[in-house]
Write a structure and sequence with these properties.
The chain is mainly alpha-helical. The protein contains 13 helices and four strands.
Length: about 325
């Protein structure tokens, strides 16, 4: 087994051979968890952490273990990591699974935005609705988890709330901010001429990408109808399925474009499989509907963007600068097992 820094830290926290004795000792102590400092690159927004769930070393260790362990699933069939693979940007290639990337800055979750609120509320959904976890008996019966919960929250009694809080702490550390473009923004690296042309297309009315994919986060974390359909049924109804407001027909969350060049599936239903198809949609195939976002029909763009093949290639070159290999290989985010 290849031991990560996590496993080394875990070994310092628990001695498996004497689990019961250590658990009893911990119950008698007044343990205070260790504050964990999340390093957020200077070009990203300020990270807000709720007072009721401060990020701690012990909480992150516990959350990371839960993220990669299938113990949360009632039949122990899969974990968060079953669908969110680090090497693929914490998504699964060829699927419409939204990547787990910079979720700590978001207040809207899922493609159709029906889940809104804090990261803690998002993890409550993951545990109780997605996994269908109704009790913590398996965690409580495990020889290790009660010790880790004691370390993180001061009690070896495992609760759904603390399970969700620990996962939120770990996911809050999943920060991507060291792509080539990030380094360019921080004046640490230059873009090539082609990449700069692509950035100009992206960040001006020419390509009009920046309105939904803001520079620092590469998403505005909002919901938009971008003209994929003119008739809406089933999953294509978007936020309308939750709000019932016709103005929300076809509205979906703007995904982050970080690591976008690694993906082989795009949009809420995975209808596109290449960046060329995505760009062609905006360039030529936007469909009109009453709920279409106004940014898609601005003067001069009624019939598409009119990008040339040269501009499209430059735009793709720029999108490639959004790949964050540091994030894809961060050992602190990898499996502890």
């Amino acid at each position: 087994m290849k031991y990560s820094t996590f496993v080394i830290s875990l070994a310092l926290l628990v001695t498996i051979s004497s689990c019961k004795k250590e658990k009893d000792d911990l119950e008698e102590s007044n343990y205070i968890a260790t504050p964990y400092k999340i390093n957020v690159p200077s070009n990203l927004p300020i990270l807000e952490t709720p007072a009721e769930n401060p990020t701690t070393v012990e909480g992150v260790i516990l959350g990371r273990m839960l993220y990669y362990d299938n113990i949360l699933h009632p039949q122990s069939q899969y974990s968060c990591s079953s669908c969110h693979h680090q090497s693929e940007g914490f998504t699964t290639a060829g699927t419409n699974i939204i990547p787990h990337i910079n979720l700590a800055f978001s207040k809207k979750f899922l493609w159709n935005g029906r889940l809104q609120g804090s990261l803690e509320e998002a993890m409550k959904f993951e545990v109780e609705e997605f996994f269908g976890t109704t009790n913590t008996s398996k965690l409580q019966a495990d020889p290790i988890y009660p010790i880790l919960f004691k370390k993180a929250f001061g009690s070896s009694q495992v609760t759904l709330k603390n399970t969700e809080f620990a996962m939120a702490q770990f996911v809050r550390t999943m920060i991507s901010g060291n792509s080539k473009f990030d380094r360019f923004v921080r004046h640490e690296e230059n873009l090539t001429t082609q990449e700069m042309i692509g950035f100009t297309v992206f960040n001006t009315e020419k390509g009009d990408c920046f309105h939904c994919h803001s520079i620092s986060m590469m998403t505005d974390n909002e919901l938009h109808n971008i003209g994929l359909d003119s008739i809406f049924d089933g999953v294509n109804q978007g936020y309308f399925a939750s709000s019932g407001n016709p103005a929300d027909l076809g509205k979906f969350k703007s995904p982050s474009l970080r690591n976008v060049a690694l993906r082989t599936s795009y949009m809420h239903d995975g209808r596109f499989t290449t960046l060329d198809q995505v760009i062609n949609h905006y360039n030529n195939e936007v469909k009109l509907s009453p709920s279409l976002d106004p940014i898609m029909t601005k003067p001069g763009k009624e019939f598409g963007l009119g990008l040339t093949s040269f501009e499209i290639e430059a735009l793709k070159a720029f999108l490639n600068t959004l790949t964050d290999s540091t994030y894809l290989n961060n050992p602190n985010l990898s499996s502890p097992f």
